[in-house]
Design goal:
alpha+beta, three-stranded antiparallel beta sheet
Length: 243
């Protein structure tokens, strides 16, 4: 029963008791009714307070749990971005991604402009500029993950033996051009386990811009070219403060 329902029932019961007291109860027993009404009032205040505080407590705990999950998703996202930078594709192999951070290298490049003489035919020579990318060195991937718990990045915080789902694929951006994609996600129901079921159900249906939309907390997409998470900017501020 919701908060409004409790208040309505309490008012009806109080009215009925008051009517009975006035019409039928002997004067010497009215003190007993006073105690009952006082107890009922205390109970009603308690239920109203609980009804008001429950969503507030839920919101605080929800944000706390989601923030920890997002910390891990950010590490996964950064690992996938670096992997694609080095390999040209994303991966859904968790072991490969950890090994890549441990021992992989990323090329350092430099873009230069060169001028070339181009024969246009008929004895016509023109100079054209061309961009040339040169590799000038390499750096370890590990430098980007210093002080970040990447070895446990696939574990969903707060849940035993539960890991994020990882997918990789590709989509056709334009005719003949395929672009790699990835997605990492976990269900909200697992993260919010043990909390108010009614409020959890509302959370799964969230569509507001300041909420994590849908049934999953995720980063990336298999349907579009994106490395963004589905959480609002407020979570970036919370997780960045902890990194």
């Amino acid at each position: 029963m919701g908060l409004i329902g409790i208040i309505i029932v309490a008012v009806i019961v109080a009215f009925l008791i008051a009517t009975l007291v006035v019409k039928f109860l002997p004067l010497k027993l009215k003190w007993l009714v006073s105690i009952v009404l006082l107890s009922a009032s205390v109970f009603l205040v308690y239920k109203i307070y609980g009804g008001i505080m429950e969503p507030i407590k839920f919101e605080k705990e929800k944000v706390k749990r989601f923030s920890k999950v997002i910390e891990h998703l950010k590490i996964i996202r950064d690992a996938e971005v670096r992997y694609k930078e080095a390999k040209g594709v994303y991966t859904d192999n968790k072991d490969w991604l950890v090994q890549f951070i441990d021992s992989g290298q990323i090329a350092l490049t430099e873009v230069n402009t060169v001028i070339e003489n181009v024969n246009k035919g008929g004895g016509i020579i023109v100079q054209e500029e061309r961009k040339v990318t040169d590799t000038i060195g390499f750096e370890p991937v590990l430098k980007y993950f210093k002080d970040r718990d990447y070895k446990n990045m696939f574990k969903v915080p707060g849940l035993e033996n539960k890991e994020f789902e990882i997918f990789s694929g590709e989509i056709q951006k334009i005719e003949g051009l395929y672009v790699p994609t990835f997605l990492a996600q976990t269900e909200k129901t697992n993260i919010l386990k043990g909390m108010n079921e009614s409020l959890v159900k509302q959370e799964l249906e969230a569509i507001a811009t300041d909420e994590i939309k849908g049934e999953f907390v995720s980063v990336g997409s298999l349907d579009e070219v994106s490395t963004a998470g589905n959480w609002p900017p407020s979570y970036d501020k919370k997780t960045d403060a902890n990194e």
